[in-house]
């Protein structure tokens, strides 16, 4: 097999998105560096790329905070791998177009671009609650399998309805009406998540070795929020559910466990080891996306180099796929980006972007 195909963003236009009234960014196909002081919009620009391509922000699960203050909506459009995408959000309604054709469902839209996001907040993958790690799996799942998001949405709908009825103390018949959609979508989701974690394990171990420069006994385990028969366990937990007034078993309780030498990484790993584990989870994600879609994702790296020691920085840069389009932000151009000859440098100041090189 030849080199994987590369996803590449050719252009993005932002209108009334966060601090930008209007902005156009045309990155190179390879290595792009966006330099600027704090609060100039570096993270917002990467966020816009992620929203344009994946309809998801790594910073928020709702679109309202993305609208520029005092405005009624935002619009993002751009070209990725030759396809034109547009997302508009106004009055709580999201509208999508692919090559100027309005889309009823996001399926075709989401088939265009793939993204991996690196940020200092990735440490939350170790320190944060299980929801952070489920979101990590979901972000990958939605990019690998077009059925992943529909399963997740169906599960969340059934779960919310059930919880609402449990809170209201509704009759059993009403609550059980949501058991079937909950179980069907939950089992499908658990199968997808298990397959992702199985594929991720060797890639993660390899990444840990590359980032730390040695063997580390760090392992990943997928723990399902139900034991074996989801439907039976749901029925068996009925009296407890009524007491706690919400659904107690299911994939909303899934956990991705991170162990170092058999101990939980969150309490056992040093700061440096936690950083290695977080970077390795992201590197493994890049490789999984490349493997499963036969195309390198667009890599968005938000100001992470200042936080990394020189050795980890060098190892990360060396191990990012050569063929991937990379868009990095930094506050400090003096941070060492190694020997990169074909680097495009953009300066960002007062919500304007200038190409320097
Ligand atoms: N919805 C919004 N409307 C207008 N401005 C916003 C909105 N959301 C955030 N901002 C502002 O946009 C500015 C840029 O934020 P952003 O996080 O992109 O900066 P940054 O360049 O990444 O900074 P840092 O280097 O500190 O990470 C900030 O001043 C922030 O307060
Ligand atoms: Mg930032």
Could you characterize what this model shows?
With 357 residues, the chain is of the alpha/beta class. It folds into two domains: 1-114 and 297-357, 3-Layer(aba) Sandwich (Rossmann fold), CATH 3.40.50.300; 126-295, RecF/RecN/SMC, N-terminal domain (Glutathione S-transferase Yfyf (Class Pi), Chain A, domain 2, Up-down Bundle), CATH 1.20.1050. 41% of the residues lie in helices and 25% in strands. The chain has a six-stranded antiparallel β-sheet with strand order 3-2-5-6-7-8, covered by helices on one side. A six-stranded mixed β-sheet has the order 9-14-15-4-16-17, sandwiched between helices. The protein starts with a strand and ends with a strand. Magnesium ion binds next to α1.
Order of strands across the main sheet: 3-2-5-6-7-8
Strand content: 15-25%
The helix content, as a percent range, equals 40-55%
**What is the SS-derived class?**
alpha/beta
Unreliable residue runs: none
Nearest-integer average pLDDT: 93
CATH topology of the largest domain: Rossmann fold
């Amino acid at each position: 097999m030849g080199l994987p195909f590369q996803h590449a963003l050719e252009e993005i236009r932002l209108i009334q998105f966060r601090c930008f009234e209007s902005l156009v960014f045309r990155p190179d196909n390879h290595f792009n560096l966006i330099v600027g002081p704090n609060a100039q919009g570096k993270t917002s620009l990467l966020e816009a790329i992620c929203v344009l391509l994946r309809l998801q922000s790594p910073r928020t699960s709702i679109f309202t905070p993305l609208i520029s203050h005092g405005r009624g909506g935002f619009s993002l459009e751009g070209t990725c791998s030759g396809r034109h995408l547009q997302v508009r959000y106004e009055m709580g309604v999201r509208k999508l177009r692919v090559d100027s054709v309005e889309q009823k469902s996001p399926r075709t839209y989401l088939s265009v671009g793939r993204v991996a996001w690196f940020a200092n907040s990735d440490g939350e993958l170790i320190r944060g609650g299980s929801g952070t790690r489920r979101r990590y799996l979901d972000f990958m799942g939605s990019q690998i399998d077009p059925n992943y998001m529909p399963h997740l949405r169906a599960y969340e709908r059934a779960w919310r309805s059930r919880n609402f009825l449990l809170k209201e103390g509704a009759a059993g018949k009403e609550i059980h009406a949501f058991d079937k959609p909950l179980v069907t979508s939950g089992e499908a989701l658990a199968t997808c998540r298990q397959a992702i974690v199985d594929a991720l394990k060797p890639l993660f171990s390899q990444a840990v070795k590359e980032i730390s420069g040695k063997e580390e006994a760090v392992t990943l385990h997928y723990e399902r929020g139900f034991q074996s028969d989801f439907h039976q366990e749901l029925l068996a937990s009925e009296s407890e559910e009524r007491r706690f007034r919400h659904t107690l078993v299911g994939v909303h309780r899934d956990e991705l466990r991170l162990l170092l030498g058999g101990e939980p990484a969150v309490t056992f790993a040093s700061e440096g080891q936690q950083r290695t584990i977080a970077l390795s989870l992201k590197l493994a994600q890049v490789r999984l996306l490349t493997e499963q879609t036969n195309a390198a994702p667009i890599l968005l790296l938000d100001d992470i180099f200042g936080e990394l020691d020189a050795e980890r920085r060098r190892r990360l840069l060396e191990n990012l796929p050569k063929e991937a389009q990379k868009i990095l932000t930094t506050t400090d151009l003096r941070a060492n980006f190694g020997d990169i000859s074909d680097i495009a440098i953009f300066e960002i100041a007062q919500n304007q972007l200038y190409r320097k090189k």
